Amino acid sequence: MWPGCGGRFYWAPESAPPGQARGVAVLFAWVWSDEAQLRPFVELYSSLGWRCLVCHPDLVALYLSEKATSLATGVISELVKELRVKPVPTVLASFSGGSKGCMYKVIQLLAGICEGDATMKDYRLVRNCICGQIYDSSPVDFVSDVGTQFLQKPAVGNLSQSTILRSWMAKVLASGMDTLFPSRIEAQRAEYWHTLYSAAGLGPVLIFCSEDDNLAPCHIICGFARRLIELGTDVKLMKWSDSQHVGHYNSHEIEYRKAVDDTLKKALVTFCHRSQLYDSNMAGDQEYKIAHSVCSLHNAAANSNESLRRVANSPSDHFFLPSSKDHDESREPSSLIEDQRRHISHPPCMEPKGVLGQILFDVCVPNNVEGWDIKPTVSPNGRPTFASARQLGPFNPIRYFRRSRL
């Protein structure tokens, strides 16, 4: 047990062992409850193969959100230790004011609305494992006459405790908070209901209520159920007319047990579907990464080939390989093609250098080509060639050297 943080919580010793449990049920008890009052519910969930984490919020946690946040942080830490070993489906079960004392703060921490001590990875682990909610005589509105009545009137099985001191404390606390902090209490009330509605997508919801329950009015709970249905939640409402507050299990044990069993089975199915979806998403991410890598390699190879192959648009289909000296990545492909086309249309002229070069140039290059009869012919391979009437013999450098000496 961990008192002093807005309440206490513990793993029920009567629940299923950790390695054999089908899931975890977090029981948020009502104020001034003890272990004996929660034992029948712990035995119910244990008989169905679920392990129970029991939370008892203090009175101040109902009105001081800091205390409720501290208690919720401790509950999430215990769940993280359990779910790190083996992720299992988790169900949140609220009894009477347990949703206001701690449960709604657990939902806020998992949603990132308020800050806690755990990491985002741990919050994600717990949030992915929560697959259902159960409300027994809950939720209860504490910022109203109903809340004051709840604090004054003891719950079922709590008649042995002194009611005079509790009634006095309830009146002082309720009237004092409503008088000193009316805006803050109203803001907490709106935040409380908004948080419960935001948890509609966690999984199936089971609600127990009674028309004879003045602490948890039936019309408030039925309105809560209708709103969840409008949000697309799978809701099952069990309503009786003769059961007391938090006494539905004692009065209708068979129906109560069957409804809980069905909801836990739905939670198991939800957890399996969610796990399969998570695995498929992980596999899809791996396939996407592999495909993305292959495409990146292909694009890199294509870009390399394009840089090595520049096609010049000319009748003779010449190919030019770029040199490291004239390579410029900032130039556009169209400008490169224009440069190659300009190079073909205006070839560099031959300019002799030196005395010997001038002599050879005068001998080898004729100055007058007028009168030459240039006729197109066809080569043996079928390609057109140009023939001249003046046939030049094979090049003889000795003869030209002799002529130059003359």
From TrEMBL:
<protein>
    <recommendedName>
        <fullName>Alpha/beta-Hydrolases superfamily protein</fullName>
    </recommendedName>
</protein>
<dbReference type="Pfam" id="PF05705">
    <property type="entry name" value="DUF829"/>
</dbReference>
<dbReference type="InterPro" id="IPR008547">
    <property type="entry name" value="DUF829_TMEM53"/>
</dbReference>
<dbReference type="InterPro" id="IPR029058">
    <property type="entry name" value="AB_hydrolase_fold"/>
</dbReference>
